[in-house]
Amino acid sequence: MSEAAPIRVLVADDHPIVRAGIAGLIDDEHDFELVGEAGDGEQAVRMAAALRPDVVLMDLRMPKLDGAAATAQILAAGSARAVLILTTYESDDVILSAIEAGASGYLLKDARAEEIVHAVRLVAAGEVALAPSVATKLVAHTRGEHRDAVEAPVLSPREREVLALVAEGLSNPRIAERLFLGEATVKTHLGKAFEKLGVRDRTSAVLTAMELGILPPRS
């Protein structure tokens, strides 16, 4: 049986010492391959287009082009499978801009090494990786703006249960195992939840459900 291909990772951060530390963390994992390091947003876009990584680990505040704008360009061009934001900034507007750009994960730089590694694996597999504090802040922000204007859709108990496990970072096979369901049934419940919430991906589904009070903010 052939070994699975490594997860190819591009690291983008304008601080050389921080970038080197993150790159070293990636390089130490047997199932990761560090394909490059970018020092600004424009370089990240160019390198992603040339290297086609699976995951870009992206800082938000960078010269020439900020991380949110770089994320949007990389994903629009199909240059990477996913972008995982790794930042020191928790301000609502900065993080919200990354969500709107399409990032699949949002971690703070004080996260433990194993949390970062796990998040890279999650987003590479098409899952969601959210730092609890970031998710809570985003939910509070969006509730403040839209609470009175948006009526929460009614999700079935099973749809809420599946979505709650997505929020925990579980993949569809893991959810199926946890709930004793077939994987196709999990996908059906998730698809119905997406339709009711008016979203197209797992990240948006979780955040929207938290915003509307269908799921509790993570703590």
Please give a structural write-up.
The chain is α/β, with parallel strands linked by helices. It folds into 2 domains: 7-130, Response regulator (Rossmann fold), CATH 3.40.50.2300; 142-211, Arc Repressor Mutant, subunit A (Orthogonal Bundle), CATH 1.10.10. It has 10 helices and 6 strands. It has a 6-stranded parallel β-sheet, with helices on both faces. Strand 5 (105-108), helix 5 (113-124) and strand 6 (129-130) form a beta-alpha-beta unit. The chain starts with 6 loop residues before the first strand and ends in an 8-residue tail after the last helix. The mean pLDDT is 84.
Number of domains: 2
Helical fraction equals 40-55%
- Specify the structural class: alpha/beta
Number of beta-strand segments: 6
Mean pLDDT figure: 84
The sequence of SSEs as H and E is EHEHEHEHEHEHHHHH
CATH superfamily of the largest domain: Response regulator
Give me the Rg, rounded. Answer: 17 Å
Residue ranges: pLDDT <50 for 5 or more in a row? Answer: none
Specify the CATH architecture of the largest domain.
Answer: 3-Layer(aba) Sandwich
